[in-house]
Amino acid sequence: MSMRVFAARPEPGAPAILDPDESHYLRRVRRAADGAALELIDDQGGLWRATVLGGDARRSELRLDAAIPVPAPARELVLLLGLHEAAATLDLLPGLVELGVAAIAWVRCARSQHGPPSAARLDRVLRAAQRQCGRPRPPALLGPLTLAEAAALRPDLPGHFAWEQRRGERDDLALVGGARLLIGPEGGLTSDEAETLKAAAFVPLALGPYTQRSGTAALVGLARLMFARAPA
Amino acid sequence: MSMRVFAARPEPGAPAILDPDESHYLRRVRRAADGAALELIDDQGGLWRATVLGGDARRSELRLDAAIPVPAPARELVLLLGLHEAAATLDLLPGLVELGVAAIAWVRCARSQHGPPSAARLDRVLRAAQRQCGRPRPPALLGPLTLAEAAALRPDLPGHFAWEQRRGERDDLALVGGARLLIGPEGGLTSDEAETLKAAAFVPLALGPYTQRSGTAALVGLARLMFARAPA
Questions:
Q1: pTM to 2 decimals?
Q2: B132 contacts A95? CB cut-off 8 A
Q3: Domains detected in chain B
Q4: Which residue in A158, A207, B182, B193 has the fewest CB atoms around it within 10 Å?
């Protein structure tokens, strides 16, 4: 695993300064010495090869050696995620960062029994995932929204939703650009919610023959969309 | 969530008998009374609508009402999984059951630092996943194998592997029938291992632009294969 730290982008030629949290991570957790090579994620979506110049566990300086080209995901995917237990949401989040999801909107569904995780916990999990996977910009987090509000978000992108009643069927998926995927909470969507989505031109997406928990459904559905073929 | 229990398939017309573990689950955990409707997973891959006839938390009897057609996954997928931490393997397992993976072989890779989870833990996690997702037959579990042994398993199925050095590239995936997917351990495959796989006609599979943990890579890769288009 590459070593990656976060800092504000410095003026050209100036060193980047790590704050106490990042300096602690660099010096105590990763035990990096002066001269160590690593990657820096800046606050403008940039990724850099960098070298530790000096400092300590409260403040460290890095030299930026070269910009690393940041790869883009194949498609812009927006996940509309029915709120479920905070711990399950936080477990799912790193996979969504790794896959390259552009935005995640929390949706209060009929069977949602929980609010979103706290901003502090979300931030901690997002940062750890970015550090691990090398993605400089985290997904945008939106909401919580009602289902109707969620269905009206980004209407320029075709909408899909996981719908258990259709799970045995096949569909023929083809996409030009990005897409939206709605995943219900544990317990699934109600029939009324499915009707609301269909009225907003959302289409059921086949995910396999067996019941999937929300986390599996989200990754399988997003993988289908991310790698869908272009129309013939 | 439907209530599901496990029992040996009875003779036609005879009741199914739940053992103490399953009777405890039925009566104490799910608090099912006589007359309750549920589903039964038998020991021959069958799924049934059933009714609780009588008994208690040590031994209960069920009437089998009707066989439920068991849906099949779109493809036969074999996952060759580089051994990593047992807890991470057990976390991943339910998703593999839900997605419909046919078989999982543990592979001792160069960077594997752990053995497979114990048979008892695997069995417990598989059963819970089957109960939850309604899949009557669990995936076959094989190994541990060496990488060379794993690469020689089911040579009739096209082989793919997750290879981080290729992660920015696109590939054009098309499949007639089933497939094999090899996922390395945490830390990834070595170059030698990638060469071994290529020599055995395994092809790198693109999973996205960022580093994925093994669990994400397995689900994303399997979803790509499960829903790959047929050749034009």
A1: 0.92
A2: no
A3: 4-67 (2.40.240.20), 77-226 (3.40.1280.10)
A4: A158
